[in-house]
Amino acid sequence: ERVRRANEELRVAKAKVHKYKEIRSELEGSLSKAADRARQLEDKNRELRGKLANITGVDQKKVPVDPEKVKKKLAEKDEQIKKLEHEKEVLQKVADSAQKKLEARDKQRLLGKQEAEDHNSELRKQVEEKARQLKETEALLHRQQSRMQRLKLEHNKLK
């Protein structure tokens, strides 16, 4: 009985040890990932500081930061941004207005073209109607002339 209990305790202890080893390896993996991430962030920070130093021409580690100057520069930048945004809005309005004018002009041209085509069509119809009336009048005139000639012939016969 004692041996069986000891074996049971040994098996439980081995299982606990195995579980603790798994947990430890997971924690070590997490720790190494966190260390890698911290190293990557440090490298990125150094790279960005280098780019900033290249742009400004000043090494940020050597220059003491004056909060008043920084606030003043930020205020100037904000003011400049507001001016640029205002100019952008004005230019956008001008561009929109010009676009609308162009569209209106194009529409007017199309309407004018359509009106001219409609007018031409109407004139064509009128010309065709006048030509038809002229033919009818000529036919009537020809009949009248023929009738006149017949009447003259009859008149001459009666004389």
Short note summarizing the structure:
The chain has helices spanning 2-56, 67-158. It has 159 residues and is mostly helical.
Please tell me about this protein's structure.
- The chain is an all-alpha fold and 159 residues long.
- It has helices at residues 2-56, 67-158.
- The radius of gyration is 52 Å and the shape is elongated.
Characteristic terms for this protein:
159 residues, mainly alpha
Parts with pLDDT < 50 across at least 5 consecutive residues: none
SS field, number of helical segments: 2
Mean pLDDT: 87
The share of residues in helices is over 70%
Number of DSSP strand runs = 0
Main sheet specs: none
- The class by helix and strand makeup works out as mainly alpha
Instruction: Quote the distance from N terminus to C terminus.
Output: 171 Å
Shape: elongated
Proportion of β residues?
under 5%
Order of helices and strands: HH
Q: Work out the radius of gyration.
A: 52 Å
